[in-house]
Amino acid sequence: xxxxxxxxxxxxxxxxxxxxxxxxxxxxxxxxxxxxxxxxxxxxxxxxxxxxxxxxxxxxxxxxxxxxxxxxxxxxxxxxxxxxxxxxxxxxxxxxxxxxxxxxxxxxxxxxxxxxxxxxxxxxxxxxxxxxxxxxxxxxxxxxxxxxxxxxxxxxxxxxxxxxxxxxxxxxxxxxxxxxxxxxxxxxxxxxxxxxxxxxxxxxxxxxxxxxxxxxxxxxxxxxxxxxxxxxxxxxxxxxxxxxxxxxxxxxxxxxxxxxxxxxxxxxxxxxxxxxxxxxxxxxxxxxxxxxxxxxxxxxxxxxxxxxxxxxxxxxxxxxxxxxxxxxxxxxxxxxxxxxxxxxxxxxxxxxxxxxxxxxxxxxxxxxxxxxxxxxxxxxxxxxxxxxxxxxxxxxxxxxxxxxxxxxxxxxxxxxxxxxxxxxxxxxxxxxxxxxxxxxxxxxxxxxxxxxxxxxxxxxxxxxxxxxxxxxxxxxxxxxxxxxxxxxxxxxxxxxxxxxxxxxxxxxxxxxxxxxxxxxxxxxxxxxxxxxxxxxxxxxxxxxxxxxxxxxxxxxxxxxxxxxxxxxxxxxxxxxxxxxxxxxxxxxxxxxxxxxxxxxxxxxxxxxxxxxxxxxxxxxxxxxxxxxxxxxxxxxxxxxxxxxxxxxxxxxxxxxxxxxxxxxxxxxxxxxxxxxxxxxxxxxxxxxxxxxxxxxxxxxxxxxxxxxxxxxxxxxxxxxxxxxxxxxxxxxxxxxxxxxxxxxxxxxxxxxxxxxxxxxxxxxxxxxxxxxxxxxxxxxxxxxxxxxxxxxxxxxxxxxxxxxxxxxxxxxxxxxxxxxxxxxxxxxxxxxxxxxxxxxxxxxxxxxxxxxxxxxxxxxxxxxxxxxxxxxxxxxxxxxxxxxxxxxxxxxxxxxxxxxxxxxxxxxxxxxxxxxxxxxxxxxxxxxxxxxxxxxxxxxxxxxxxxxxxxxxxxxxxxxxxxxxxxxxxxxxxxxxxxxxxxxxxxxxxxxxxxxxxxxxxx
Length: 1003
Description:
- It is a single chain.
- This protein is an alpha/beta fold.
- The strands form 7 sheets. A 7-stranded parallel sheet has the order 15-16-14-17-20-13-21, with helices on both faces. A 7-stranded parallel sheet has the order 24-25-23-26-27-22-28. A 6-stranded mixed sheet has the order 1-4-7-8-9-10, with helices on both faces.
- 50% of the residues lie in helices and 13% in strands.
- The longest helix has 26 residues, at 885-910.
């Protein structure tokens, strides 16, 4: 066992190593009704405020001790102001009022402050006493409270620690938390920090120690203690990286602290050089808006910048409003009230005559034309949000028809503020093919990518599911459209530009996507899919429509199929004078949009599904939104920003789901290429979630293999109840069995939320059984045994969620593996039957190429031999001389497909895993070995190699020379154990090593 007391001792050792004084709570000379250490506080304030009388010091202490309310949040906010801005004390001397400012800390000379850590501090309040585990005092004030739980007790974790701190704060000893800067919860496995207002899912780990360090995973206590509790860093966080809004206290996460610290240094340097401070790339949903607030607050008070003016530039009115609202809520931290420019003339008024200070918001469109010089001051910082979208255009462009010279927004913005320093924020990466952003703003300052945000719990994983609706389109009618255009031009003299304008309004895409039958199919599928998921998280979903017209049609179709959804489904878009009256009534005005934003963000409101076209796709945060249905083509950063609407953290939400009705996958993969390499596989196929669910289900089936639960699937409610009750009894035979079951069913519940739309009715019923048993155990453990009615109601709800046959083709076969599997006998027959043999051949070649890429990741020997053959087939196709040659190539590809399939499946027939088969093929590729060693020996060597490599691989071993050298030794031992020919050993070792590295790179 590793007890709570032992973990407490570990924490105290860390603090002593960091130079903190340590005392047990029982040894502190104090009144247990008081949480301030008055002797230490008075001594510290006297030392820090030379020349201030003892009476003034004691009056400052009285103000710190005495508050006007009993509200923890209100008092904490007052104390925080004392902490960062001093305590103001008035003194009457000779009839004159003198104002003193008493400092509570020496922010510059850290060692002039008194750092003390105390354990088992007893606090008596409200007639009872409580003893928090560890309290950190600085200058006699209790600034940090730790609550610890045992690392070896499975039934307790940091959630229990969080609840205990909340009880202390809200019920038992609230006065301790008047002075709290932040809280720490830890069970030795997880260690997280958060403020007094933070929900549990907003507590977070601290994963770096020093600014230049890389992120450290799996050492949460180390990084928290050495990173956050370094004395200088602790005071820096207290002073510069904690802020209050009207109803919350917000502390910077580690990526915001280190990233914005670097940004401050880079900005100050840029004011003295070329004005290019750099680019901050923090992925969507990771708190970018508050990062901008933290940066602004630190720049405002930086001595070298002499009260700078900060100009915040966005490219959309809704973004401008949302970001302005965030900044306005933090006006105390910023020490001023932000201003928002309403017009081009207003931005001129706000900037032209301003000498110092100010935080001014403007959209970039206000610089659409030349404004003239607004200010030539050097202490102006221009902070640009989503810089990749509108910040190009410093060079002239010419209208080839008129010769008119035009510039982009960026040129006019820089002409207006020629000596300003520019810093850029982006939630999407800078495109690899376009250096304009870094050229304009400077190099990347800090990166916090999608993968890291998910690992840290700052965002949730995004899952992707393809549901391509079959498009029923009358090609004859499409042809008739073209003919009619032609007739109008020929017979009625309609000009080309009129036809072109008409084609824009009535594009083929609009006709295809907006086809009424197609929208009906999509709407039917959305209803089915939504009703399958609505009770699993929060029921909030967004439908992205192609155009205003298709959005309206979609709305009408949803209401026609579900008349009771009028309060549930609403359209959000700007008003348009061209809209039909019915649509205009639905859309409303600007106030309607504001009201709908508030309503949609309310988890409990009946407004659950919003239909949008462009609005709310960027900078719009609704944490409970978990599903996005996309029926609109999107690319690059627009696509990534849109799908990030579902990645926000929310209680009970394990992932956001993007459901694709338009065929986004290729664009999604293209967009991900500009992300960090580890981000590129983090938008996961929903099929992967399904695979995880089925694996867990198999574990549970094995767990219940001696228990017959088939009665659950019958018609008798009584028998269903009994098999749930008896199943709960069966799995609680031992604590170990119970914990295994509860752990696996918790994972199953989480992943089931994501992939329920892909599971069969039978599978969902079986999952429902195990979840029901889990619920039975949980409820009987906590609140007594549920009755028959309650169990039936809960189970019936899950059983009703069955997928409807709706004429929509669900294409989850999107990966290379699954595309290959799609070539079953039925589909091969279809390819053989179509007369367009070049199309059929190209489909086969594309699938084969993708499959070989996949094989290469797993088996270099098979990949090499088949790749060489494939290249010859491709060459033959490209060199065809006769239209009949393609038939020959097509047949060769079919034969190639079968042989490749056989080669892939050969390992299964031999009883080998993928890894084992790869080593078997590597060794067997030498014909001499085949004649020397029997297949049975090679099989044993392959299995031994796979086991050895797995046992001895360490993190990134395939990239480290020393680790590879050790791996060679292990490989040699295996070969010699099986009497592998010595003269063949050197090559075999290198080949096996290469195959092992290949496997490591693709894990």
